[in-house]
Write a structure and sequence with these properties.
Blueprint (H helix, E strand, L loop, with lengths): L1 H105 L33
Length: 139
C-alpha cells in the first residue's frame, strides 16, 4: 500500500508535468511545421515571380526583335527609295541637257527649269523629345 499511496501522490504532478511536456513538444512540432510551410510558400512565390520575370523578358526580347526587324526593313526601303530618286534625278538632268541641246540646234535661248532638289538629301537632326509609355502602348 505504501507504493500505491506514493503513486497517488506523484501521479497528479507527474501527469501535469507530462502533459506540459507533451504540450510544449506538440507546440514546437507545430511551429516547426509552420516555419517549413512558410519557407515552402516563399520558395513557391519566388519561383512564380522568377517565372513571370522570365516570361516578361521573353516578351520584351520578342518585341525588341520585331522592332529591329522593322527598323531593318525601313532602312532597306529608304535605300531603295534613295536609289530610285538618284536615278530619276540623273534622268531629269539628262533630259534637261537634251532639251538644251535641241534648243541650241533650233537657235532658241535655253529653257529655264525649276532647280532640282538637293540629292542626297541633307541630314536633319533627329527629333529629340521625351519618350513616354503613351508613345509605345504595345510595350
Amino acid at each position: 500500500m505504501p507504493m500505491l499511496a506514493a503513486w497517488n501522490e506523484i501521479a497528479g504532478p507527474a501527469a501535469w508535468a507530462l502533459s506540459a511536456a507533451t504540450g510544449w513538444w506538440g507546440h514546437s512540432l507545430r511551429m516547426r511545421r509552420l516555419a517549413r510551410q512558410r519557407e515552402h510558400d516563399a520558395s513557391d512565390m519566388a519561383l512564380r515571380l522568377i517565372g513571370l520575370a522570365v516570361a516578361r523578358a521573353e516578351q520584351l526580347e520578342a518585341l525588341q526583335r520585331s522592332y529591329v526587324t522593322e527598323l531593318d526593313d525601313l532602312r532597306r526601303d529608304r535605300w531603295r527609295a534613295s536609289e530610285a530618286v538618284a536615278q530619276v534625278q540623273a534622268e531629269a538632268i539628262a533630259a534637261r541637257l537634251i532639251v538644251h541641246e535641241l534648243d541650241a540646234r533650233l537657235g532658241e535661248p535655253p529653257r529655264e527649269f525649276h532647280p532640282l532638289p538637293d540629292f542626297p538629301f541633307p541630314q536633319r537632326a533627329p527629333d529629340v523629345r521625351a519618350i513616354t509609355m503613351e508613345d509605345h502602348k504595345d510595350a
